[in-house]
Design a protein that fits this description.
heterodimer, A: mainly beta, Ubiquitin-like (UB roll), two-stranded antiparallel sheet, B: FAD/NAD(P)-binding domain, 8 helices, about 25% strand
Chain lengths: ~90, ~375
Amino acid sequence: MAGNAHRIEKGVSRGNHFEIIVDGRRITAYEGETIGTAMMAAGLYILRTSTEKKEPRGIFCGIGVCQECRVTVNGIPNIQACKTLATPECCVES
Amino acid sequence: MFSQEAEVVVIGGGVVGSATAYFLAKENKNVVLIEKGHSAGEASGGNAAWVWSLTRKAGIDITLAMHSISIHQQLQAELELDFEYRASGGLMIMDAENQVPFVKEHLDQREKDGHPLEMVDAKQVLEIEPMLNRDRILGGVWNPVDGTTNPILLVASLNREAEKLGVQIHHHTEVKGIDVSQGRVKSVTTNRGTIKTDCVVNAAGSWAGHIGKMVGITVPVSPFQMAMLVTERIPRCIFHPIMGASYMVEEDTGKEGGLGSGLIASQQVSGNLLLGACWRDAGFDKRTIQEEIERIAIVNIEAMPSLKDIRVIRSFANFFPHTLDDLPILGPVEGVEGFIMASGHNGHGICLGPGSGKLVAELLCTGNTSVPIEELKLERSALSVE
């Protein structure tokens, strides 16, 4: 996937921003953003690899159905990045 | 180009029709398989994924199941695409005193019939399945020949092999009519063309009655819904298919407009748990309702408390082709030469389907079957609604 996702800058008001930790790296997230959104805005598209063929997987449906965007959050596996809100200092393993 | 002619037209692309087509093709029959939807698109693709004989009754019921289990083993050895069949053994658990006499009676009958089952105590049950709630277990029944499979892959594997042997498979193709003249099948008309044939196999499952009408017969098969949950993939924690013995207690919950429920739990090779089940008479509606989802979760968490932290990713329901005596309808039909029934597997289709396909193929190729199927004919008294 060609990665050029970015936050819309004009005409949008955002709440507070904070940091989350993805695979040891600190990235910025805003209140109301999902983990998947914050990761895409930081250029992180590969959320996991497929079980058998180890192919990259990312946000696909974006609405909690396809199960492709599963990550581990604060040690809990199989969390859907597309519909789980980022919280300050939450620790994501992709 | 659409098929013009066939020695046998099989209607229904589920496990029964797919097995029938495969075994006919192995005997060099020229076969066309017609399916209105996609491969394993109905009951064959939405079920507990078990190869299960523990609760099959003495007599023809268990005879068919044991025969079909031997066919599962044969298919596992000869089909190229692996379909995740695991003959792990199966477990039934008792958690209420009222279940015990029904279970004992079943074991007596099976023993007399030469298909004994093993009663196990609570301690053994917990050794077999350590995740079960130890406070609730009274005992159980163990059956070493049972197991789980992946029915969608099984059908895909049968279809792939059948196509190699020359079977023409037409998915998304609907049968519109069957021409019968002078009491003989002449052709099958679909929305894509007409196929000349003198033999049709009705493996349409819950739709067997629709197909029957086309040749002027009544096929007493009706849809009966079962709903299940699918969880996230987790490390192996359920090692065998587990059924609650409440299924053995004779009551008609769900059949009189109510909602029945009982424990069904197993884990696929992928790691997903398949948890059930609720059942109800919902006609051809396969939507799940909130109450079903909640009931299934409660039943399973009561049996295995640590499931409370496991996430459900999907629910699904399907309907099984129900017959009044819980047995399939297999074999020729009086008055319509060339019309063969292979439907009505009552939620046992994954276990029984490969065997039924084999028996129908034997019937059409040799006139005989390795398991006598006379008592499964459409005309049997147990199916008459009067």
